[in-house]
Design a protein that fits this description.
By secondary structure, the chain is an all-alpha fold. It contains 12 helices and no strands. Helices cover about 80% and strands about 0% of the residues. Helix 9 packs across helix 10. The longest helix has about 30 residues. The protein starts with a helix and ends with a helix. The model has no long low-confidence stretch (mean pLDDT about 80).
Amino acid sequence: MELTGMQQFAVVAAGFGAGVLTSTVGVASLLSFPVLLALGLPPVVANVSNTIGLIAGSLSGSFGYRRELMVRPRLAWFVVITCTSGAVVGAVLLLCLPSGVFEAAVPWLIVLACLTVGVQPWLGRWLRRNDEPGGRRTALSPGTIVFAALTGVYGGYFGAGAGVMMMAVLSLGLDLDLRVVNALKTLALLVANVVAGLIFALVADVDFAVAGLLATGALIGGYAGAHLGRRLPPTLLRILIITAGLTTAVTML
Protein backbone atom coordinates (compact mmCIF):
# COMPACT_ATOMS: atom_id res chain seq x y z
CA MET A 1 0.00 0.00 0.00
CA GLU A 2 1.08 3.61 -0.63
CA LEU A 3 1.99 5.49 2.55
CA THR A 4 2.24 9.23 3.13
CA GLY A 5 5.35 10.73 4.72
CA MET A 6 3.64 10.97 8.13
CA GLN A 7 2.45 7.37 7.90
CA GLN A 8 5.98 6.22 7.07
CA PHE A 9 7.31 8.11 10.07
CA ALA A 10 4.62 6.52 12.25
CA VAL A 11 5.65 3.02 11.15
CA VAL A 12 9.36 3.71 11.78
CA ALA A 13 8.51 5.15 15.20
CA ALA A 14 6.36 2.12 15.99
CA GLY A 15 9.26 -0.09 14.93
CA PHE A 16 11.61 1.77 17.27
CA GLY A 17 9.20 1.44 20.18
CA ALA A 18 8.55 -2.20 19.39
CA GLY A 19 12.29 -2.84 19.25
CA VAL A 20 12.72 -1.33 22.72
CA LEU A 21 9.84 -3.47 24.02
CA THR A 22 11.32 -6.58 22.41
CA SER A 23 14.46 -6.22 24.51
CA THR A 24 12.68 -5.19 27.70
CA VAL A 25 9.27 -6.62 28.57
CA GLY A 26 8.73 -8.54 25.33
CA VAL A 27 5.37 -7.27 24.08
CA ALA A 28 6.48 -5.52 20.90
CA SER A 29 3.48 -6.52 18.79
CA LEU A 30 1.08 -4.83 21.19
CA LEU A 31 2.57 -1.55 19.95
CA SER A 32 3.39 -2.17 16.30
CA PHE A 33 0.49 -4.44 15.29
CA PRO A 34 -2.28 -1.90 16.11
CA VAL A 35 -0.37 0.77 14.15
CA LEU A 36 -0.40 -1.43 11.04
CA LEU A 37 -4.11 -2.12 11.51
CA ALA A 38 -4.75 1.62 11.82
CA LEU A 39 -3.07 2.11 8.44
CA GLY A 40 -5.69 -0.15 6.89
CA LEU A 41 -3.74 -3.41 6.43
CA PRO A 42 -5.84 -6.57 6.71
CA PRO A 43 -5.12 -8.41 10.01
CA VAL A 44 -3.22 -11.34 8.48
CA VAL A 45 -1.14 -9.08 6.20
CA ALA A 46 -0.43 -6.80 9.15
CA ASN A 47 0.62 -9.76 11.29
CA VAL A 48 3.03 -11.31 8.81
CA SER A 49 4.53 -7.92 7.85
CA ASN A 50 4.91 -7.12 11.54
CA THR A 51 6.65 -10.44 12.20
CA ILE A 52 9.18 -9.88 9.42
CA GLY A 53 9.79 -6.25 10.36
CA LEU A 54 10.48 -7.06 14.02
CA ILE A 55 13.25 -9.56 13.19
CA ALA A 56 15.64 -6.61 13.13
CA GLY A 57 14.68 -5.58 16.67
CA SER A 58 15.17 -9.01 18.21
CA LEU A 59 18.45 -9.39 16.27
CA SER A 60 19.95 -6.14 17.54
CA GLY A 61 18.53 -6.83 21.00
CA SER A 62 20.20 -10.24 21.12
CA PHE A 63 23.45 -8.60 20.06
CA GLY A 64 23.02 -6.07 22.84
CA TYR A 65 22.57 -8.94 25.33
CA ARG A 66 25.54 -10.91 23.99
CA ARG A 67 27.36 -10.84 27.35
CA GLU A 68 24.34 -12.32 29.13
CA LEU A 69 23.88 -14.99 26.46
CA MET A 70 27.49 -16.10 26.83
CA VAL A 71 26.86 -16.86 30.51
CA ARG A 72 24.97 -20.03 29.48
CA PRO A 73 25.77 -20.72 25.79
CA ARG A 74 24.53 -24.34 25.90
CA LEU A 75 21.24 -23.21 27.40
CA ALA A 76 20.94 -20.55 24.71
CA TRP A 77 21.22 -23.25 22.02
CA PHE A 78 18.52 -25.32 23.73
CA VAL A 79 16.23 -22.29 23.68
CA VAL A 80 16.95 -21.78 19.97
CA ILE A 81 16.13 -25.40 19.09
CA THR A 82 12.99 -25.53 21.24
CA CYS A 83 11.56 -22.25 19.97
CA THR A 84 12.38 -23.10 16.35
CA SER A 85 10.24 -26.24 16.45
CA GLY A 86 7.38 -24.40 18.12
CA ALA A 87 7.49 -21.40 15.78
CA VAL A 88 7.25 -23.63 12.70
CA VAL A 89 4.02 -25.12 14.03
CA GLY A 90 2.63 -21.70 14.89
CA ALA A 91 3.38 -20.23 11.47
CA VAL A 92 1.76 -23.20 9.73
CA LEU A 93 -1.35 -22.83 11.90
CA LEU A 94 -1.64 -19.17 10.96
CA LEU A 95 -1.44 -19.98 7.26
CA CYS A 96 -3.78 -22.99 7.40
CA LEU A 97 -6.57 -21.57 9.54
CA PRO A 98 -9.19 -19.38 7.81
CA SER A 99 -8.55 -15.64 8.17
CA GLY A 100 -11.86 -15.24 9.98
CA VAL A 101 -10.61 -17.49 12.75
CA PHE A 102 -7.52 -15.35 13.12
CA GLU A 103 -9.52 -12.11 13.22
CA ALA A 104 -11.78 -13.55 15.93
CA ALA A 105 -8.83 -14.78 17.97
CA VAL A 106 -6.72 -11.59 17.90
CA PRO A 107 -8.56 -9.61 20.65
CA TRP A 108 -8.49 -12.57 23.03
CA LEU A 109 -4.82 -13.21 22.33
CA ILE A 110 -4.10 -9.57 23.18
CA VAL A 111 -6.13 -9.83 26.38
CA LEU A 112 -4.21 -12.97 27.31
CA ALA A 113 -0.93 -11.16 26.71
CA CYS A 114 -2.04 -8.21 28.84
CA LEU A 115 -3.07 -10.52 31.68
CA THR A 116 0.32 -12.18 31.47
CA VAL A 117 2.02 -8.80 31.75
CA GLY A 118 -0.17 -7.90 34.69
CA VAL A 119 0.50 -11.02 36.79
CA GLN A 120 4.25 -11.08 36.15
CA PRO A 121 5.19 -9.34 39.46
CA TRP A 122 3.10 -11.77 41.53
CA LEU A 123 4.48 -14.71 39.57
CA GLY A 124 8.02 -13.54 40.28
CA ARG A 125 7.35 -13.28 44.02
CA TRP A 126 5.74 -16.73 44.04
CA LEU A 127 8.77 -18.18 42.29
CA ARG A 128 11.14 -16.62 44.81
CA ARG A 129 9.17 -18.09 47.70
CA ASN A 130 9.30 -21.54 46.13
CA ASP A 131 12.97 -21.80 45.21
CA GLU A 132 14.24 -25.35 45.35
CA PRO A 133 16.75 -25.88 48.20
CA GLY A 134 18.70 -28.55 46.32
CA GLY A 135 20.81 -26.28 44.17
CA ARG A 136 20.39 -23.91 41.24
CA ARG A 137 18.54 -25.15 38.17
CA THR A 138 20.59 -24.20 35.12
CA ALA A 139 19.29 -26.74 32.55
CA LEU A 140 15.87 -27.02 30.92
CA SER A 141 13.68 -29.70 32.47
CA PRO A 142 11.28 -31.68 30.23
CA GLY A 143 8.35 -29.64 31.52
CA THR A 144 10.12 -26.35 30.81
CA ILE A 145 10.97 -27.55 27.30
CA VAL A 146 7.31 -28.37 26.62
CA PHE A 147 6.05 -24.98 27.78
CA ALA A 148 8.86 -23.17 25.97
CA ALA A 149 7.89 -25.00 22.77
CA LEU A 150 4.21 -24.06 23.28
CA THR A 151 5.26 -20.43 23.73
CA GLY A 152 7.20 -20.78 20.48
CA VAL A 153 4.00 -21.99 18.80
CA TYR A 154 2.20 -18.90 20.07
CA GLY A 155 5.11 -16.72 18.94
CA GLY A 156 4.96 -18.15 15.43
CA TYR A 157 1.16 -17.79 15.29
CA PHE A 158 0.73 -14.27 16.64
CA GLY A 159 3.43 -13.31 19.14
CA ALA A 160 1.94 -10.40 21.14
CA GLY A 161 3.13 -10.99 24.70
CA ALA A 162 5.14 -14.06 23.73
CA GLY A 163 8.28 -12.54 25.25
CA VAL A 164 6.63 -12.08 28.63
CA MET A 165 5.28 -15.62 28.46
CA MET A 166 8.74 -16.93 27.68
CA MET A 167 10.19 -15.00 30.61
CA ALA A 168 7.59 -16.58 32.87
CA VAL A 169 8.38 -20.08 31.58
CA LEU A 170 12.15 -19.65 31.92
CA SER A 171 11.84 -18.02 35.34
CA LEU A 172 9.71 -20.92 36.52
CA GLY A 173 12.10 -23.57 35.23
CA LEU A 174 15.49 -21.96 35.85
CA ASP A 175 17.34 -20.22 38.67
CA LEU A 176 19.13 -17.51 36.72
CA ASP A 177 19.66 -13.78 37.01
CA LEU A 178 16.76 -11.82 35.50
CA ARG A 179 19.11 -10.17 33.00
CA VAL A 180 20.09 -13.61 31.66
CA VAL A 181 16.43 -14.65 31.46
CA ASN A 182 15.65 -11.42 29.60
CA ALA A 183 18.48 -12.14 27.16
CA LEU A 184 17.20 -15.68 26.55
CA LYS A 185 13.71 -14.29 26.02
CA THR A 186 15.00 -11.84 23.42
CA LEU A 187 16.83 -14.67 21.66
CA ALA A 188 13.65 -16.75 21.70
CA LEU A 189 11.75 -13.89 20.03
CA LEU A 190 14.46 -13.67 17.38
CA VAL A 191 14.12 -17.38 16.62
CA ALA A 192 10.31 -17.25 16.46
CA ASN A 193 10.32 -14.19 14.20
CA VAL A 194 13.00 -15.56 11.86
CA VAL A 195 11.32 -18.94 11.44
CA ALA A 196 7.83 -17.51 10.98
CA GLY A 197 9.17 -14.68 8.80
CA LEU A 198 10.91 -17.07 6.40
CA ILE A 199 7.72 -19.09 5.97
CA PHE A 200 5.59 -15.96 5.54
CA ALA A 201 7.99 -14.46 2.99
CA LEU A 202 7.63 -17.56 0.83
CA VAL A 203 3.91 -18.23 0.97
CA ALA A 204 2.04 -15.32 2.58
CA ASP A 205 0.91 -11.88 1.46
CA VAL A 206 3.56 -9.54 2.90
CA ASP A 207 3.77 -5.76 2.61
CA PHE A 208 7.55 -5.56 2.34
CA ALA A 209 7.56 -1.75 2.27
CA VAL A 210 5.86 -1.65 5.67
CA ALA A 211 8.07 -4.46 6.97
CA GLY A 212 11.17 -2.54 5.87
CA LEU A 213 10.06 0.63 7.65
CA LEU A 214 9.36 -1.34 10.80
CA ALA A 215 12.77 -2.99 10.58
CA THR A 216 14.51 0.38 10.29
CA GLY A 217 13.09 1.56 13.60
CA ALA A 218 13.28 -1.83 15.32
CA LEU A 219 16.97 -2.27 14.56
CA ILE A 220 17.83 0.83 16.61
CA GLY A 221 15.17 0.24 19.24
CA GLY A 222 16.18 -3.35 19.92
CA TYR A 223 19.79 -2.41 20.68
CA ALA A 224 18.74 0.54 22.83
CA GLY A 225 16.24 -1.66 24.66
CA ALA A 226 18.93 -4.17 25.60
CA HIS A 227 20.75 -1.44 27.51
CA LEU A 228 17.52 -0.17 29.07
CA GLY A 229 16.51 -3.70 30.02
CA ARG A 230 19.38 -3.90 32.49
CA ARG A 231 18.09 -0.98 34.57
CA LEU A 232 14.58 0.13 33.52
CA PRO A 233 11.89 -0.06 36.26
CA PRO A 234 9.09 -2.03 34.58
CA THR A 235 6.06 -0.82 36.57
CA LEU A 236 5.07 2.27 34.57
CA LEU A 237 5.86 0.60 31.25
CA ARG A 238 3.76 -2.41 32.26
CA ILE A 239 0.78 -0.18 33.07
CA LEU A 240 1.04 1.61 29.73
CA ILE A 241 1.30 -1.69 27.83
CA ILE A 242 -1.75 -3.17 29.57
CA THR A 243 -3.78 -0.01 28.91
CA ALA A 244 -2.82 0.14 25.24
CA GLY A 245 -3.34 -3.60 24.73
CA LEU A 246 -6.76 -3.70 26.37
CA THR A 247 -7.87 -0.61 24.44
CA THR A 248 -6.84 -2.28 21.19
CA ALA A 249 -8.60 -5.53 22.12
CA VAL A 250 -11.85 -3.74 23.00
CA THR A 251 -11.87 -1.79 19.73
CA MET A 252 -11.40 -5.03 17.75
CA LEU A 253 -14.19 -6.99 19.45
